[in-house]
Amino acid sequence: MFHYQSPPNLLQDKIILVTGAGSGLGRAAALAYARHGATVLLLGRDEAALDAVYDRIEAEQCPDPALFVLDLERADENNYFELANLIHGEFGRLDGLLHNAGVFAPILPLEHHALDSWQRLLQVNLTAPFALTRACLPLLRAAESASLIFTSSTAGRELRAYWGGYAIAKHALENLAALFHLELENTSNIRVNSLNPGPCATALRRVGFPAEDPATLPTPEALMAVYLYLMGDDSKGERGKQFSAQ
Ligand SMILES: NC(=O)c1ccc[n+]([C@@H]2O[C@H](COP(=O)([O-])OP(=O)(O)OC[C@H]3O[C@@H](n4cnc5c(N)ncnc54)[C@H](OP(=O)(O)O)[C@@H]3O)[C@@H](O)[C@H]2O)c1
């Protein structure tokens, strides 16, 4: 397990966008960031789930979050730039972007992989993080020190038979993160890293492993040390690396 002791004010005054913030790891990260002082921008497609996270943050008297409902499977070019414009108008910058939203599919041989499932896996897991990063780059450039985190998977670091479009999307996402790192190498205020949470008890995991007992897996909350480390200024020197939560 990744070890890091975060100071309570680690993310004071930071503006951080988290995708897929309504459940699982995204929800846990949004709450952890808010509890460390950040204004968290909660992005997802399920408004009720985002509302619940919003209410929880408010109830704990953390900085007021903001909420953006966007379906990353259907979002078009304009949606991403409209979102960036809204953030610019309200906050003027982004200190952190956690690409966390993701979809999984039942484990299947490629020859049985349906085309619509393949397209959805690539759209949400790969194309959306590209499009959102591109739209948000001016906001990240405007920050004093910004952290860009791409959520990967073990399936994105080693090839695994039957993991289909998910594995392909996560491999490509690792390369996307590496490419953004290379292209931003001289942009000293933006650091880019990828993060593999490893197996974790969430709805996404259950799609691939319905028979697995979730009690045998860590909870999202148990994995937050590395999420905090990478988002806070203690990781300023970390660039172009692959991190693992476990
Ligand atoms: N759990 C694991 O074992 C594991 C292991 C390795 C990597 N990961 C990665 O960790 C990340 C978080 O997953 P999780 O395990 O926390 O699963 P999760 O609880 O299912 O969270 C995924 C989040 O992504 C959102 N999302 C999915 N499709 C979306 C869309 N079209 N538009 C907007 N948001 C969308 C989901 O919203 P809805 O609730 O509306 O679907 C949900 O909030 C993913 O990138 C996943 O690949 C997880």
CATH H-level homologous superfamily name: NAD(P)-binding Rossmann-like Domain
> What Rg do the Cα atoms give?
17 Å
Give the number of helices: 7
* Ligands bound, unique: NADP nicotinamide-adenine-dinucleotide phosphate
In the CATH hierarchy, the third-tier topology is known as: Rossmann fold
**Portion of residues in helices?**
40-55%
Number of strands: 7
Amino-to-carboxy terminus distance: 4 Å
* CATH class type: Alpha Beta
What profile does the largest beta sheet have?
7 strands, parallel
In the CATH classification, which architecture applies?
Answer: 3-Layer(aba) Sandwich
Structural class: alpha/beta
What's the shape? globular
In order across it, which strands form the biggest sheet? 3-2-1-4-5-6-7
Spans of at least 5 consecutive residues whose pLDDT stays below 50 are none
- Counted up, domains total 1
Walk me through this protein's architecture.
By secondary structure, the chain is an alpha/beta fold. The protein has a single domain (15-244), classed as 3-Layer(aba) Sandwich (Rossmann fold). It has 7 helices and 7 strands. Helix 5 (164-183) links the parallel strand 5 and strand 6. The longest helix has 27 residues, at 115-141. The relative contact order is 0.17. NADP nicotinamide-adenine-dinucleotide phosphate binds next to helix 1 and helix 6.
